[in-house]
Predict the 3D structure of the following.
Amino acid sequence: MAERIFQNQTLSIQGGHMDSIDRQIITILQKNARSSISEISSRVNLSIPATSDRIRKIEAAGIITQYTAIVNAAALNMKLTAMMFVSLEKPHYSEHFVSFVNTQDEILECHYLAGDFDYLMKIVTESTESLERLLTRIKSVPGIQKTQTIVTLCTVKNVHSVLPHEPE
């Protein structure tokens, strides 16, 4: 496993050993990725250079992989969320299916599964009509055996990334 030295600690790229300050920095950036180094440093009681160095090392270790804007789907009239399970006839259809999924902006997530279905997709779209059009496109992909769609009534929790936690 690749490892990097991090202030006399080993920071593992997979699963990392972080101290409470690292976790505080990550939590601050998760809440607002536009927080300034100065603001973060004052909140974690470190100097600006020390804070900047920690953030750089956290990024280099692959713990923070991206800074992005979270868009309010409803403000863009994308008011319908659905989960869709997909089964393929045979595994050799997977590559074509994944290529198709990557061309569809309404499909936000696609997960390969173990169990009765092969894939689970999170879809955000405008309406039941636009969901129906997407479903028709999905069913026209070669190798689709069956689908099951579940429409979300409301979202009770929506966290965009894992939260840092204390080691057990």
